[in-house]
Amino acid sequence: MKQFQESEGYKIIDAWMSEKGQKPFDFQMQTWEYYGKGYSGMVVAPTGFGKTFSVFLAVVIDYLNHPETYKKGLKLLWISPLRSLAKDLAKAMNTAVEEIGLDWTVEVRNGDTPQKDRRRQERLMPDVLLTTPETLHILYSQKNNSRFFKSVRCIAVDEWHELLGSKRGVLTELALSRILAISKSLQIFGITATIGNLEEALKVLIPYVGFKTKMIVAKEKKKLNIISVLPDEIEVLPWAGHMGVKMTSKIVPIIYENNTTLIFTNTRNQSEVWYQHILKQAPDLAGQIAIHHGSIDFELRNWIEDSISDGHLKAVVCTSSLDLGVDFKPVDCVIQIGSPKGIARFMQRAGRSGHSPYETSKIYFVPTHSLELIEASALKQAVKDRRIENREPMVLTFDVLIQYMVTLAVGEGFDQKELFHSISKVHAFHYMTEEDWQWALKFITEGGNTLKSYEEYHKVVKDDDGLYKVKSRRISMLHRMNIGAIVGDAMLKVKFFSGGYVGMVEEYFVSKLNPGDHFILAGRVLEIVTIKDMTVLVKRSKRKSAITPSWMGGRLPLSSYLSQYLREKLSESLHPKTTEKELRFLHPLVSRQEAHSHIPKKDEFLVEMIETKDGHHLFMYPFEGRLIHEVMAALIAYRLSLLKPLTFTIAMNDYGFELLSDQEIPLNEKSIEAILSKDNLMDDVIGSINASEMASRKFRDIAVISGLVVQSQPGNRKNNKSLQSSSGLIFRVLEDYEPQNLLLRQAYTEVFNQQLEEVRLKEAFERISKSKIIIKFAKSFTPLSFPIKVDSLRESVTSEDLDQRIKRIRDEVLRQTQID
Amino acid sequence: MVTKEILCRDEILTLTNQRALFWKRENMLVLSDLHIGKTAHFRKAGIAIPSQILQNDLKRLESLIGNFDVETVLFVGDLFHAEINKDMDEFINWKQKFSNIKFELIKGNHDRLKDSFYQNLEISTFKTHKDVLPFRFVHDANHCNDDTFCISGHTHPGVVIYGRGKTRIKLPCFELSENQLVLPAFSEFTGLNTIRSFETSVCYGFTESSLFEL
After folding, report:
1. What is the pLDDT of residues B47-63, one digit of tens each?
2. Which of A77, A221, A239 is nearest to A814 (CA)?
3. Is B162 on the interface with A (CB under 8 A)?
4. If DSSP codes are grouped into helix, strand and coil, which group holds residue B136?
5. ipTM (interface predicted TM)
6. Which domains does chain A have, with CATH numbers?
7. Model's pTM, two decimal places?
8. Which of A578, A711, B112, B185 has the fewest other C-beta atoms within 10 Å?
9. Of A369, A378, A366, which is closest to residue A623 (Cα–Cα)?
10. Which of B42, B60, B87 is best to mutate for the A interface (most A CBs within 10 A)?
11. Residue in B46, B81, B195 closest to A478 by CB
């Protein structure tokens, strides 16, 4: 350490920092020193503590110490998942470089970079380039691109936890492997927030032998203040629901009390509804409150983000669209509406307030229905215990591999042996076999394995020099447009008839509307004039209310860590500690559940059989989240139907699921064990679901990423119309004609890993088999079953009479209680 | 093959689960949206679609011709998908086996090849429609008129059947309404459109082994 502190480079940086009245954090010092010793590694630190400067200044210091070892051109390549981050980072780095008196240039390159800047960069790369994984791959598709990377000494991967666990992470792994093959002396540093599997995250980023690696974890911890927002009395909170707008009157004062508040909702639809309700409650906030989500015009979102930074806004209602991104200094308060579904996400959102070091982040949790109060209590405990979810890295994603191979073929071409060697060292393809590789090679050159069945297909050809290349300009062009691993939904643009872009809505939503109908987007009531060319033309409407679009895929799965805490808190809820104000508040409801049925303890599994005039209901409460419950419900229905042929209606939420039948369900103390058995689990699951249909849905992304489906950009009528086909169609065709296709196999694997969550499902049944099973019979819905029942109603009726129906059922339940 | 006879304007029409319709009175096989050249068009753009799809489509057409006493094959549009490519050779070779059968085409939105091309192939073409009373044959229902029953293609009709849980399957179908019958797309490499043109439509969906009213 001492020796390092005496180095010229360190002294310069230390002097520069103390001039600004700053002192390096320990983890920054460590990073600088280890970098100087030739280490690679990963920096783990909370946001706001100068993670960026740990790695950036490490390179600067090393350069100042040994300028002679650095070549002209690109030195530090900075990969970040977000475009919006790059701009601000570059600004901060440029300021530093200038103040230190270094002759470096720092530039951004991404989809927004103007043509002339790109050409300039291609003539002479800046010393530091900030980019995204996708843009890097697009660079790889250029002729003669190796020269850009020959001088690179360090690759920094920012927000690695965001990339890890997605196909963008695999894109990043592949991007790194290429530079490793080009640059002689390379160091790699990941920068991440805390996740459950840090060691693995480091291994995935740097799986290479010969690299000295070090994990540097900051001691500094972000202080977090979690405040539950409770209504004045429990009756105000609905027993079920997910909007929670009844709590508007409670959050308006919070908005007034703070400078700038970010209000996180779980879906775009929910954010539109909340925006309307806040404005109704506090009309004077008009102009000081905005709405931000993924379907709102990009320019408008940028403007909103700038306005937050400048402190012009009191509140912004948003979705995960603001989970990440640039630091908003004025934000001093965050409100989470409804369950955040995961501990990491909750902490990340909380961290968006009180951004500077040592400031406390403040987050209000607003339950949307009564039972969510248990979640508030669970979250507090989880944050206290610092139990944060893992990010599981993806492996053997052949769609990304195919895309990467074609990218290289469009660029400089590749030698198949060398590339195989390089790719099999990448974590994601460590277990790829020689056979798989030959298939991939055949797929891009001949279309598939079957002899002569892919005539006229010459996507990639082996050139005279032995390199695999793309010769057709059209194919190159189509491929460049398609690079990346983010696949959007089929969306339509929404534009004003008079000009001006509002945002996007799903095709599915629009298909139910006609000209003259009204809907809400970006907080505005709009009337449809006409729909043509993937564009919905609208005009402003004077109406005050209308329907809000529903966007599919808005439902996040509940993390397994959080579900574990949920079960614990529920079992404690009958006798809450004095400090647990949420559980105390909930007590009337919990007692009712205990009186009419049961509150499951930690080692118990509750099954409720309820008979109403609708039929025979079976409720189970695994608390594993909606996705797993969907699979479990189908499985239980399947096993029951083996005992007696029955037809079921299935409903579920994050806590449990319901099977409804018009006939008696053959379930009792005797048969229950077989029904919940962990034996033959996966066989029965396969028997109970339509795996082919699920795989077909998963195949959508795979088809787009691997280039089997040409994505139509909304509004962009750049023809290619004759190349339109649906991924479902291609899936069907491949199942018929080439069932051994690896992309098909990948779709099934993704179903098992992501949809059925095989590992978690097995664990759940393991746990249930060890639990004491409690069967309770009830005459009316219990507080636990009620929300599930309501969710199933939601799917069959429109929202107006839904509220009434909920009220009616609840009144019936309450009356029943009084009679008892 | 599974067939079903329906009565339409006092004429008997035979629907098949092989994506085509047979009209006994005229000994006419009617089909739509064969999209020859589509798979090759995709392959040329670097999208790997197997060419056996066309071979299968043609095989199916051949067995339909063998099964009925066919004098005329009427394509109600979109016979060819795009430019001339190798799939055409396959079709031309195939067609030579049927010199005694009349081939006719109502031009669809995809049929943009030169007239001489069709002439050389000995396919007579109609620009928008052909009337064989009591029916009018068109590609796109825009060319129907109010008093004649219209037999068309173009939309690639399909139906969704919902199963237990959240499962659903999509099947191709014939879509019958008061004044119109829409044929399913003949080619297997076509998507399915499940939005109905009329609320009162009756659909005849089919699978490999069945044909049923929905």
Report:
1. 888 888 999 999 999 99
2. A239
3. no
4. strand
5. 0.85
6. 2-217 (3.40.50.300), 223-385 (3.40.50.300), 491-540 (no CATH), 597-689+757-819 (no CATH)
7. 0.87
8. A578
9. A378
10. B42
11. B46
